[in-house]
Amino acid sequence: MGFAEALAAGRLVLDGGLATQLEAGGADLSGELWSARLLRDDPAAIVAAHAAYLEAGAQVLTTASYQATLPGFARAGIPAPEAAELLRRSVTLAREAARGEAREAARGEAWVAASAGPYGAMLADGSEYRGNYGLSVRELAAFHRPRLEILAEAGPDVLALETVPDTREAEALLTALDGVGVPAWLSFTIDGSRTRAGQPLEDAFALTRGVDAIVAVGVNCCTPADAAAAVPMAREASGGKPVVVYPNSGETWDAAARAWTGPAGAVRVPDGAALVGGCCRVGPAAIAAIARAIGAEPR
Fold first, then answer.
1. pLDDT per residue as tens digits for the range 268-289
2. Known binding positions for Zn(2+)
3. Which of 149, 178, 198, 295 is deepest in the core (most CB within 10 A)?
4. What is the pTM of this model?
């Protein structure tokens, strides 16, 4: 069964924060490459983190490529051919975990979502929470296209165009996605009823209306309350597409201090969401609770 067919058949459980689980396992993610560094230095840690989410009940694994880009790797001294191989490896590692855990548990199927984070993630300065990079749609599309092509070559089930703070970047991603040949979901990071760059969410979600390559639209990397409120808006503005929701724990990222502050909230499963999981600071225990809430037992 393909990803779109599985999505049409019922709700799917996404994983939680990959960096959250990697850090819980002792990984140092303090550098600018963040979890993408481990694609080169410790791929086994990535497989183990994926496996922990599968064991908790996740049905969709998101690759360690959120902050992995050709320019970002180049800045770290990694040449383009090796950088492309590391991007492909992110998909291979998730597939390795999915096949191993699914085969061992002998139940169901697990899908791989190749993560493509926003331009701001490469900057490693919190820009993904602001948007407004000063780049044109054309420039942003040129940035995203090579990575989407490389990830698509590796054979994921779906592309996760995620944590998008700005409708201009969403337009660029939709342009870059054209002809890639892999379906995608598009999820915005939001503040209340607006994108992080301040645009109305209705306008953001409406960009996906009639775009067949987008199989789901929604929000991530936001508060649980904002995520729940966005569900009906996303469904209506997109013309009825399935809605993807994976908020943070409720804590707030302090980019200057590079630390999370504030209390974590309770796990919630918003009504009407077709893809449900967690983002920053959401670990396997919370994903297991989500899986139980929607009837997908942990593995």
1. 789 999 999 999 989 999 999 9
2. 221, 279-280
3. 149
4. 0.93
